[in-house]
Recover the amino acids of this structure.
């Protein structure tokens, strides 16, 4: 069996992987929280789709391949197949999106969360081993069944916990703590699956074709920036629409537009004028006679009376 390095760049790879997993999970949980507060189904679906890209694309897939940059076989070059690499990205985003759609609509229940967690966990496992299948090197890859089973259990548990967090936690502190737990679980699943792998090199086999690992730094950086910017812009646009429109998508008239009555200048001016009974009678008589009524005047305050004189004792 060939010697394998999982941390060829030292501690930088696991730290970068964990930070990407944390950032993706954090943004995804924030978007899931907005989805719970959405007024209609279309807006809820929009927030859930944004959350799926943040968690599946950023928190899982980007974490996986940033960690894979530290994978190295000293006796053989390692290359990656672009089509399978992109397919693994599709698995991550799609399955996380399906899980969020299942738990994001209807009545929440433990059974629904567990079923959605199984679906999402299966997609995460498919993403991981599709990415591993995309590796190109002159060797045969073997897997330890026990460690593969352990990584599968971790993926199912991490996905279920992530979906439960997505539908339950609120507040910056709790979301941050939940994202930290999710990132730890995703990294644990990845490195457990990597530990299950062993490589048997074939010296006479031709060198593989594909993308060099360091060449993937540019697309990973671009995809990371695009994911963060896209999630931020989509969230900002959705928040702006929710701020200035009501649940039906019609513009609001003001802060209390749902309960306040339309305001008019006539009502304000008439409410500010207090008429005496005599002035009301004059205005009524002029209206009956067809003559224009004079402008109402505010009633005068009664003149103060002098205090009674007191005789000296």
């Amino acid at each position: 069996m060939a010697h394998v390095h999982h941390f060829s760049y030292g501690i930088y790879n696991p730290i970068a992987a964990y930070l990407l997993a944390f950032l993706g999970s954090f943004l995804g949980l924030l978007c899931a929280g907005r989805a719970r507060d959405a007024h209609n189904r279309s807006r809820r679906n929009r927030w859930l789709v944004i959350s799926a890209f943040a968690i599946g694309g950023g928190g899982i897939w980007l974490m996986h391949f940033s960690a894979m940059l530290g994978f190295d076989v000293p006796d053989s070059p390692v290359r990656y197949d672009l089509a399978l690499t992109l397919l693994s990205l599709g698995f991550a985003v799609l399955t996380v999106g399906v899980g969020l759609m299942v738990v994001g609509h209807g009545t929440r229940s433990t059974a629904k969360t567990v079923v959605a967690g199984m679906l999402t966990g299966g997609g995460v496992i498919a993403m991981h081993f599709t990415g591993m299948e995309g590796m190109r090197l002159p060797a045969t890859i073997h897997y330890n069944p026990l460690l593969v089973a352990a990584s599968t259990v971790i993926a199912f548990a991490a996905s279920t916990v992530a979906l439960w967090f997505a539908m339950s936690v609120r507040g910056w502190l709790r979301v941050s703590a939940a994202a930290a737990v999710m990132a730890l679980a995703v990294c644990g699943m990845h490195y457990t699956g990597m530990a299950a792998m062993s490589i048997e090199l074939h010296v006479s086999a031709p060198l593989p074709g594909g993308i060099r690992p360091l060449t993937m730094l540019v697309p990973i950086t671009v995809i990371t920036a695009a994911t963060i910017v896209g999630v931020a812009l989509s969230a900002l646009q959705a928040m702006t629409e929710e701020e200035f429109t009501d649940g039906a998508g019609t513009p609001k008239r003001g802060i209390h537009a749902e309960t306040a009555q339309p305001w008019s200048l006539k009502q304000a001016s008439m409410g500010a004028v207090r008429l005496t009974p005599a002035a009301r009678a004059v205005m009524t008589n002029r209206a009956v006679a067809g003559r224009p009524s004079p402008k109402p005047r505010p009633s005068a305050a009664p003149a103060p009376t002098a205090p009674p004189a007191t005789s000296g004792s």
Notes: DSSP finds nine helices and four strands in the chain. Residues 254-269 have pLDDT under 50 and may be disordered. Residues 41-68 form the longest helix (28 residues).
